[in-house]
Specification:
Elements (H helix, E strand, L loop, with lengths): L13 H18 L8 H12 L9 E2 L3 H10 L6 H15 L2 E6 L4 E6 L1 H8 L7 E2 L2 H4 L3 H8 L3 E4 L12 E8 L6 E9 L6 H20 L10 E4 L7 E4 L2 E4 L2 H11 L7 H8 L7 H15 L4 E2 L4 E2 L3 E3 H10 L3 H7 L11 H21 L2 H9 L7 H10 L3 H15 L11
Parallel strand pairs: 8-13
Antiparallel strand pairs: 1-4, 2-3, 2-7, 5-6, 6-7, 8-9, 9-10, 11-12
Helix pairs in contact: 4-8, 12-13, 12-14, 13-14, 15-16, 16-17
InterPro entries: GAF, GAF-like_dom_sf, OmpR/PhoB-type_DNA-bd, WH-like_DNA-bd_sf
Keywords: DNA-binding, Transcription, Transcription regulation
GO molecular function: DNA binding
């Protein structure tokens, strides 16, 4: 191979290449070694797939469906370039009896479109919107591997790790946020052996570049005029975006903004005192001083008094999670949950909000009985000691590490507290 990105160079016999790859795949599955003819990008992906616990007879799982999928797609940045992607890829896919797909940065397929008969065939392996095609879920495949390694990838036939995907060939390229460079997802073309050609790889790269250019030309999505954006999940000091300014708030100002964002009608000084301070000796003068400092940070006209209130709407990440939970979009809520609300805050009202949001989400996850969602929560810093979630996960996915962690948590629960132990003699 002169180009390591190309799966099948012109002049190569595809039938012979498939035979070699199948033999190499079986060798890897049985012995864990990769024979030399396998491309490095594929060999590395096979190893990552095996390390992630992917089996060669696995299948993709649908993670987003119905309301979850619709909500998540509508809010995803790549939704804004889908008309362009359809224009560039639609005819190519239809004429060639291929599919084109767009996934997010986690390898979840958001859109799958193209030739109707090919779509019906792809449905049988769950290559459908909402299914998770991350490399860590279904092994080597173009969209999942492209976002895993952040580079264009072409995967031919038996280069796929999962056997049921080996009749297919695909090429994908990552799409980046033009302002931050962050991977947003990938564009993919999937079909038969005819796609194992340098042109298909160049095609998806060109579509990805066009999508990035289009995103750069579009005005960045802004909330309604005058709206503030508040980010308070998983951080002790909230971030506030107002106009073109991004402000990192102090801990106390973070607490005040979170509370005022939830009470557009305003809060009296006494209400704010009770919400912010456990110590009843704190005087209204202390609170007024904090509010005066906050007013200077925000700028003129944003913080009113009598009662204390914000004069413009606030869109917060806390409200996003709450709305999704209220509509039953549990997967979308979990994806938006970046951690507890202001985790270090001891303000009574913030503590209550933090507990209520976390309990509401974890209850919904346990009720959903999705092992991947439960695993994400259990392995997050806030879920490491969550006994109920580990029990729910162990019931659905009783792997040795899960059972071991559950046993450790239950042993801790059963052990007497230090104060209850009899004194040593």
């Amino acid at each position: 191979m002169t180009d390591p990105l190309v799966a099948l160079e012109p002049g190569t016999d595809p039938v012979e290449r498939v035979r070699i790859l199948r033999r190499a795949h079986e060798t890897f599955v049985s012995a864990g070694t990769v024979p030399r003819p396998v491309r490095k990008v594929v060999a590395d992906s096979w190893r990552r797939s095996a390390q992630a616990g992917v089996g060669p007879d696995g299948t993709a799982r649908v993670e987003l469906a119905d309301g979850d999928l619709g909500t998540y797609r509508a809010e995803h940045p790549l939704a804004r370039v889908m008309p362009l992607v359809r224009e560039l890829m639609g005819t190519f896919a239809a004429d060639g009896e291929h599919l084109f797909a767009v996934c997010d940065a986690y390898g979840r397929l958001l859109w799958v479109e193209g030739h109707p008969a090919t779509r019906r065939r792809a449905d049988r392996m769950n290559f459908v919107p909402g299914a998770r095609w991350a490399e860590s879920a279904v092994g080597t495949n173009a969209p999942g591997t492209a976002v895993a390694v952040d580079r264009p990838v072409q995967v031919f036939a038996a280069e796929h790790f999962v056997r049921r995907v080996q009749p297919w060939t695909c090429a994908a390229a990552p799409v980046h946020d033009p302002h931050t460079g962050q991977v947003l997802g990938a564009v993919d073309i999937t079909g038969g052996d005819g796609l194992a050609h340098p042109h298909s790889l160049g095609f998806v790269q060109a579509v990805a570049r066009a999508a990035e250019s289009h995103l750069a030309l579009l005005a960045p999505p802004r909330p309604a005029t005058g709206t503030l954006r508040l980010t308070a999940l998983g951080r002790d000091e909230a971030h506030l975006v107002t106009g073109d300014r991004r402000i990192r708030l102090s801990r106390r100002h973070s607490e005040i903004l979170v509370l005022l964002s939830r009470h557009p009608e305003g809060l009296t000084g006494d209400e704010l005192l009770c919400a912010l301070y456990e110590d009843e000796s704190v005087t209204p003068v202390t609170l007024r001083a904090e509010l005066a400092r906050l007013r200077r940070v925000l700028g003129p006209g944003l913080l009113a008094s009598r009662p204390y209130r914000l004069t413009v709407p606030v869109e917060s990440d806390v409200a996003v999670v709450e709305r999704r939970l209220e509509t039953g979009a549990v997967t979308a809520a979990a994806s938006a949950y970046a951690g507890p609300v202001l985790p270090a805050s001891q303000a009574p009202a913030v503590v209550r909000l933090r507990r209520r949001l976390a309990d509401g989400l974890r209850t919904a996850l346990i009720a959903r009985r999705d092992p991947d969602l439960l695993a994400d929560w259990a392995h997050a810093p806030w879920g490491t000691d969550d006994l109920e979630v580990w029990r729910a996960l162990a019931a659905l996915r009783p792997t040795p590490p899960v059972r071991a962690r559950l046993a450790a948590l239950e042993a801790e629960l059963a052990a007497p507290a230090d104060w209850a132990r009899p004194p040593a003699r």
